[in-house]
Amino acid sequence: MPHLPFIIAAFSVTGVGMLWLTVSSYLAMRRSEALADDLRQQP
Amino acid sequence: MHRFANPARFLRLARPLTPALFWLGLLLALGACLWGLFAVPTERLMGDTVKIIFVHVPSAWLGMGGWMGIAIASLVQLVWRHPLAGIAARAIAVPGATFAAICLMTGSIWGRPTWGTWWVWDGRLTSMLVLFFLYLGYIALANASSEKGDTSRVAAVFGIIGAVNIPIINRSVIWWESQHQKASITLGGSSIDGAYLAPLFVAVAGFSLLFGALVLMRMRAALAEMRIDARMRRMADD
């Protein structure tokens, strides 16, 4: 049984999971902090 | 600990720490993966599939470590009423669940060429699957309680009780017959050859720093949402 497809699959699963986690966490942080700053500057 | 109970003080620390942890973690994790993929020798019994260890073990460690983080933060929230502890516990939940899911998937992918099967219902795999479901339950409870606006005491109690599963995962390969190998790294030493152990430690360090950065991002998002809610309430009152 060739091992390479299993190695590629395992690293791909990790890469996709990390990418999703990073993008979703970063966007949530940026959106919330930007909105909070906008609201603070309103009179 | 109470020095950081003030969200403003916490944010002054978290803002520079988030990118520092993220970039250092990314550098170490990517470096360890490349090291593991291209520079470690083929293992005698498992062949090249041994390279999966560099993503499987860090994700297992962080899946379990994440729940211990939730349990400790929940305890601090309930006992000392630390205002950031509940936020920290919630911020850990999604990264922890994701790492638990990555651990299950990479383990299954590793199992097919080495054990001849994608899945067996033995103690280690089943208790890890239970951990993933505990994460889903915690996330649902925390979201439901935050919608009601309370302090998520139920989620905190759930987080503490769920920690019972962590020693079960750890001891499962000793208590029950398992396809999964026994612990290779213990307090007494390691049975893994140094050629694999060094990149594995770098991978664990790198993914742990990334985990920390992701938790800080989610805590900052939660604190900003609290500021937004407070501001909206004041605007509605005026």
UniProtKB/TrEMBL annotation, chain B:
<keyword id="KW-0201">Cytochrome c-type biogenesis</keyword>
<feature type="transmembrane region" description="Helical">
    <location>
        <begin position="92"/>
        <end position="111"/>
    </location>
</feature>
<dbReference type="Pfam" id="PF01578">
    <property type="entry name" value="Cytochrom_C_asm"/>
</dbReference>
<feature type="transmembrane region" description="Helical">
    <location>
        <begin position="60"/>
        <end position="80"/>
    </location>
</feature>
<keyword id="KW-0812">Transmembrane</keyword>
<protein>
    <recommendedName>
        <fullName>Heme exporter protein C</fullName>
    </recommendedName>
</protein>
<keyword id="KW-1133">Transmembrane helix</keyword>
<keyword id="KW-0813">Transport</keyword>
<keyword id="KW-0997">Cell inner membrane</keyword>
<feature type="transmembrane region" description="Helical">
    <location>
        <begin position="196"/>
        <end position="217"/>
    </location>
</feature>
<feature type="transmembrane region" description="Helical">
    <location>
        <begin position="123"/>
        <end position="142"/>
    </location>
</feature>
<feature type="domain" description="Cytochrome c assembly protein">
    <location>
        <begin position="36"/>
        <end position="177"/>
    </location>
</feature>
<dbReference type="InterPro" id="IPR002541">
    <property type="entry name" value="Cyt_c_assembly"/>
</dbReference>
<dbReference type="InterPro" id="IPR045062">
    <property type="entry name" value="Cyt_c_biogenesis_CcsA/CcmC"/>
</dbReference>
<dbReference type="GO" id="GO:0015232">
    <property type="term" value="F:heme transmembrane transporter activity"/>
</dbReference>
<comment type="similarity">
    <text>Belongs to the CcmC/CycZ/HelC family.</text>
</comment>
<comment type="function">
    <text>Required for the export of heme to the periplasm for the biogenesis of c-type cytochromes.</text>
</comment>
<keyword id="KW-0472">Membrane</keyword>
<dbReference type="InterPro" id="IPR003557">
    <property type="entry name" value="Cyt_c_biogenesis_CcmC"/>
</dbReference>
<feature type="transmembrane region" description="Helical">
    <location>
        <begin position="21"/>
        <end position="40"/>
    </location>
</feature>
<feature type="transmembrane region" description="Helical">
    <location>
        <begin position="154"/>
        <end position="176"/>
    </location>
</feature>
<dbReference type="GO" id="GO:0005886">
    <property type="term" value="C:plasma membrane"/>
</dbReference>
<dbReference type="GO" id="GO:0017004">
    <property type="term" value="P:cytochrome complex assembly"/>
</dbReference>
<keyword id="KW-1003">Cell membrane</keyword>
<dbReference type="GO" id="GO:0020037">
    <property type="term" value="F:heme binding"/>
</dbReference>
